[in-house]
Amino acid sequence: MEVVIVSDAAAVGEVSADAISALVQRKPDAVLGLATGSSPSELYRELARRVATDELSLAQCRGFLLDEYVGLPADHPQRYRTVIETEVVTPTDLRSERVQGPDGLAADLPGACADYERSIQDAGGIDLQILGVGSDGHIAFNEPGSSLGARTRIKTLTDQTRRDNARYFGDDIGSVPHHCLTQGIGTILQARHLVLLASGRAKAEALHQVVEGPVTAMWPGSALQLHPHVTAIVDEAAASRLQLSAYYRDAYRNKPAWQGL
Fold it and tell me: Active-site positions, per UniProt (predicted)?
């Protein structure tokens, strides 16, 4: 796994935006996998800045969400489709009709998951998938114990994840849904480039296990080690538990032809 250690969360946003900018320059109709939560927030702010200053256009891109809560009303501010509209679509030129997410309000949830998988394949697959990592090592909503080969499906959220996400619901864990639809790890691993973002000391242990630990369902993000093109962009605090941090710094500094990851 390629690990890029930068100073802080703002730098994480800048470097990851460089990766997307380089991709879109090569392929203006790139397919982007969009994550929610705190990890990509600086990235989305930087993308909005670049679009506003005509440094970047996402107008021809497509976007696919990693996951969605089950049962939240369409106008709920924490529905992930709403979050992406607010943080990505509105401040950039990415068009709303070119963004899809799994339908957490569908009457037939397994059918909605199968339809979502087909939509990704029909788009030619995801070129660059943005990922965060939970404090327990989950990616998307693939909680500890999840199958490392699973596809988009219904999952039950752990108490830890619901506690972590309660801050988005006014610190009321009772308002956090118990279920979600999520891309499976098998789906995520089919993207051509995976970009994992992590900031803050609270992510340090998870990042250590995901990057340097064994591949295990107890730390689902560790399955990223099986992918041929993964870039982890992390700040100093998140990197504080990495045993090979000096090596990662040297590898990045001495990379002779680094071009936007």
Answer: 67, 136, 138, 143
